[in-house]
Design brief:
Chain A contains no helices and eleven strands. By secondary structure, chain A is mostly beta strands. Chain A has a single domain, classed as Immunoglobulins (Immunoglobulin-like, Sandwich), CATH 2.60.40. In chain A, strands 2, 4, 5, 6, 9, 10 and 11 form a seven-stranded mixed β-sheet that branches. Chain A has a four-stranded antiparallel β-sheet with strand order 1-3-8-7, with no helix packed on it. By secondary structure, chain B is mostly beta strands. Chain B has one domain: Immunoglobulins (Immunoglobulin-like, Sandwich), CATH 2.60.40. Chain B contains no helices and twelve strands. Chain B is globular, with a radius of gyration of 13 Å. The N and C termini of chain B lie far apart (41 Å). Classes of the chains: A mainly beta, B mainly beta.
């Protein structure tokens, strides 16, 4: 019954390394999101994508990039990891929102906990 | 602009007593409002959703929330806490036609035996 799969639950990387976090959904959703979760700060949106090859910056895009080559897959890339990127990363997806109906329910993956040493 | 404020970062209740988790929102339009729950080491799960239908919304596990436009609030309640309710709860707001959502900073609920 898995719907949103994040490829790695736990990663440990060194400062300066390139990091890929992969997310795959099997619900044919148009929208996909990457959030980071930190204690006391809740979830903050890094990037989202509303279609293949389309992306929009969220609240905290600095130091991150994304790739959406296929509808089901949304990758988060840290070009040069830094210690302040140690965090829990959550991927989510929703169907496209119809006008005036508000956002749809997010389906989340289990999260990827990244530690940068 | 949309935003949401969760008034308590941590709430502690005894098992069997009522739960109240407070949420205030800011929105220029009639918003959609959500409560999500995150159990330890798990992903977020939807508890309930308000989208301009009935103002009292019932969710899973006995939780409910009431939309009060005059108070711009969407507080989450449960009559009797269970140990399994211990988790972090997030209030979320979105505006019509939006594809993005805005999260509160979360409230950690502790249930004391």
């Amino acid at each position: 019954d898995v719907k949103v799969t994040q490829s790695s639950r736990y990663l440990v990387k060194r400062t300066g390394e390139k990091v890929f976090l992969e997310c795959v959904q099997d619900m044919d959703h148009e929208n996909m999101f990457w959030y980071r979760q930190d204690p006391g700060l809740g979830l903050r949106l890094i990037y989202f994508s509303y279609d293949v090859k389309m992306k929009e910056k969220g609240d905290i895009p600095e130091g991150y990039s994304v790739s959406r080559e296929k509808k089901e897959r949304f990758s988060l890339i840290l070009e040069s990891a830094s210690t302040n990127q140690t965090s829990m990363y959550l991927c989510a997806s929703t169907p496209r929102s119809k006008s005036y109906s508000g956002a749809n329910v997010l389906t989340f993956g289990a999260g990827s906990r990244l530690t940068v040493l | 602009a949309q935003s949401v404020t969760q008034l308590d970062s941590h709430v502690s209740v005894s098992e069997g007593t009522p739960v109240l988790l407070r949420c205030n929102y800011s929105s220029s339009y009639s918003p959609s409002l959500f409560w999500y729950v995150q159990h330890p080491n798990k992903g977020l799960q939807l508890l309930l959703k308000y989208t301009s239908a009935a103002t009292l919304v019932k969710g899973i596990n006995g939780f409910e929330a009431e939309f009060k436009k005059s108070e711009t609030s969407f507080h989450l309640t449960k009559p009797s806490a269970h140990m399994s309710d211990a988790a972090e709860y997030f209030c979320v707001v979105s505006e019509p036609g939006a594809n993005n959502l805005f999260f509160g900073t979360g409230t950690r609920l502790t249930v004391i035996p």
